[in-house]
Write a structure and sequence with these properties.
It contains 19 helices and 21 strands. By secondary structure, it is of the alpha/beta class. It has three domains: 135 residues, Nucleotidyltransferase, domain 5, CATH 3.30.420.40; 148 residues, ATPase, nucleotide binding domain (Nucleotidyltransferase, domain 5), CATH 3.30.420.40; 212 residues, DHBP synthase (Alpha-Beta Complex), CATH 3.90.870.20. Strand 1 and strand 2 form a beta hairpin. 51% of the residues are buried.
Length: 580
């Protein structure tokens, strides 16, 4: 069975192709269109998946869509009717797209793809649950999903066994932990569905002095993790804003305008909502264990990208092992619905668990060389062994390196294939990369990538973390890596194994030999406001527009100081690459 999964029309549109239950390709549309969080129909991602799988649409056995548009449309209509006339502006803004496209998904998919086969619609949270359970490798697991909202569901508890998933409990809209966190994201002046990780990064700078206010006024959080929001403080059910005057009056300050200076109260608000979220997730995880009695936990949904909460569940929860889907947001729904159709509906056997998330495009040395030559770039081409030694030496000397190797990552994290790398020992490196290369806020932390076999030497973490989705304390006797140690002494860790990624493992191993520290700064290869780079052309443009010192694509090494041509390359280069 060849199954195509699709997610779109909310945020982070994506496509995924399975063949006999195994992932062939998966990618977000934003990487091709260069529109961050692109939500439109993922035609480019679909075309990539088909090309990677060497199939055409008439060879696809089934298409899956990650949620049920008619149920979601019903929820929106009921909400607008219940809140009339408050929601009239939001209603008028939303309806044209719904009436033209969103409720006609079967017709749209058939038309856009010239597809005449079966189309299956999975419930949103079932797609999330499938995306993490089938990827986990667990034969049996408890499953916890949490996000803003799907059709009606905002939180679900499920059990997975073999090929089957059973939803056990749900919390429905408008009561949503994800929307509560997004309300504070909006209040703090960051973009909803984009800036939540900024709130998480901001939190350790403050004190959670508003935690009790949130628990008393905004959310009724019970011991089993179930909750209800006090809706009189929120405007998201009916308005174009997340919060209104009553919310602002509660905390005594207006909603922060984007890009204005952050004040101590903003740090404290971030710390407060972060603590509430952690407590809610921890209670839900414990309740999930109580009703499933399963030692394995799978997490997905946008809230599962809160790696601080994940770390607490691992340390303080009852589970022996946890797996977090690396594409936990809506992009992962494309894989989720495809895997559910494959395993639960068509009963195809499960394949081995995900060992990596490298399901995107890769480019040959021939393609890279053509792009660089067209750019007038000055480069050196090295063998594998010489490349690792040269790049490790540059990082050890304090250079910031753009690193592009192999297939692009699926999900929001750069995991060593589309990364910016630097020396974590230099206390100034965090500000250097933030201000001169990423062009982003100085409070934003960077993640360390560490050799899997050396992880426990540096961090209080006893399980692998290949997807950068667990936060743990840095050991006090190893705080020689200040640029990846957050203000609270923690780090968002990626472990790398030789089996999963031998090239990246060899690089960090060589850097460790030179420096004595087998850890590097690893941040996504992009600048603020842009998606992670995909093509060699994307990487070149980002390299030339920043103060990055070096660029490495496959076997090609470029030093900024040696470049003579400053113009950005045209978008069409890769389309003109002659045959190898």
């Amino acid at each position: 069975m060849k199954i195509l999964g699709i997610s779109c029309y909310y945020h982070d549109a994506a496509a995924c192709l399975l063949d006999k239950g195994k992932v062939v390709a998966a990618a977000q549309e934003e990487r091709f269109t260069r529109k961050k969080h692109d939500w439109d129909f993922p035609k480019n991602a679909i075309n990539y998946c088909l090309k990677e799988g060497k199939v055409s649409m008439d060879q696809i056995d089934a298409v899956g869509f990650y949620d049920k548009p008619f149920i979601k449309f019903d929820r929106m209509l009921q909400t607008y009717i219940q809140t009339y006339p408050k929601g009239i502006l939001s209603f008028l803004k939303a309806m044209p797209l719904w009436l033209k496209k969103k409720i006609w998904m079967s017709h749209l998919i058939s038309k856009e793809l010239n597809y005449k086969g079966e189309i299956y619609f999975g419930e949103h949270h079932l797609s999330h649950a499938a995306s993490t359970f089938y990827a986990s490798g667990f034969e049996e697991a408890a499953i916890l999903t949490a996000d803003g909202v799907g059709e009606w569901t905002t939180t679900s508890i499920a059990s997975g066994k073999g090929l089957d998933i059973k939803i056990l409990e749900e919390i429905n809209f408008p009561h949503s932990l994800g929307l509560l966190y997004s309300a504070f994201t909006y209040y703090l002046g960051f973009r909803v569905n984009s800036g939540e990780y900024k709130v998480m990064g901001l939190a350790p700078y403050g004190q959670p002095r508003f935690k009790d206010v949130i628990l008393e006024k905004l959310i009724d959080l019970r011991e089993d993790g179930s909750f209800k929001l006090n809706l009189k403080y929120f405007t998201f059910p009916h308005g174009l804003r997340m919060v209104g005057r009553r919310f602002e009056k509660l905390f005594g300050i207006p909603t922060r305008n984007p890009e204005t200076e952050l004040q101590p109260i903003h740090f404290d608000l971030a710390a407060s909502i972060q603590k509430v979220t952690e407590e809610a997730m921890l209670r839900m995880a414990r309740h999930t264990y109580e009703i499933t009695k399963c030692p394995n936990l799978c997490l997905a949904g946008g809230v599962a990208l809160n790696c601080v909460a994940n770390g607490r569940i691992l340390r303080e929860g009852p589970f022996r092992d946890i797996f977090v889907q690396p594409a936990s947001g809506d992009a992962g729904g494309a894989y989720g619905v495809a895997s559910f159709v494959s395993h639960a509906l068509f009963r195809e056997p499960r394949v081995p668990s995900w060992e990596h998330a490298f399901w995107g495009p890769e480019y040959s040395d021939h393609e890279v060389k053509h792009t660089l030559d067209q750019a007038g770039a000055v480069y050196t081409q090295l063998s594998d062994g010489d490349l690792v030694k040269e790049v490790a030496r540059k990082i050890e000397q304090g250079k910031v390196v753009g690193w592009v190797q192999g297939r692009m990552e699926f999900g929001p994290r750069a995991l060593g294939h589309r990364s910016i790398l630097a020396d974590p020992r230099d206390p100034k490196m965090k500000d250097t990369v933030n201000l001169k290369i990423k062009f982003r806020e100085t409070f934003r932390p960077f993640a360390p990538t560490v050799l899997e076999e050396k992880c426990t030497d540096y961090f209080e973490l006893n399980q692998k973390s290949p997807y950068m989705l667990l936060v743990a304390p840095v050991r006090e006797n190893k705080r020689v890596i200040p640029s990846v140690t957050h203000v609270d002494g923690s780090a968002r860790i990626q472990t790398i194994s030789r089996e999963a990624d031998p090239d990246f493992h060899n690089l960090i191993d060589e850097f460790g030999r030179l420096s004595g520290v087998p850890v590097v700064i690893n941040t996504s290869f992009n600048v603020r406001g842009e998606p992670i780079v995909c093509t060699p052309g994307d990487a070149w443009r980002c390299f030339m527009r920043t103060r990055m010192d070096c660029l490495v694509i496959n076997h090609f090494v470029l030093d900024k100081e040696k470049q003579t041509r400053k113009e950005e390359p045209p978008e069409s280069w890769l389309k003109k690459i002659p045959p190898d």
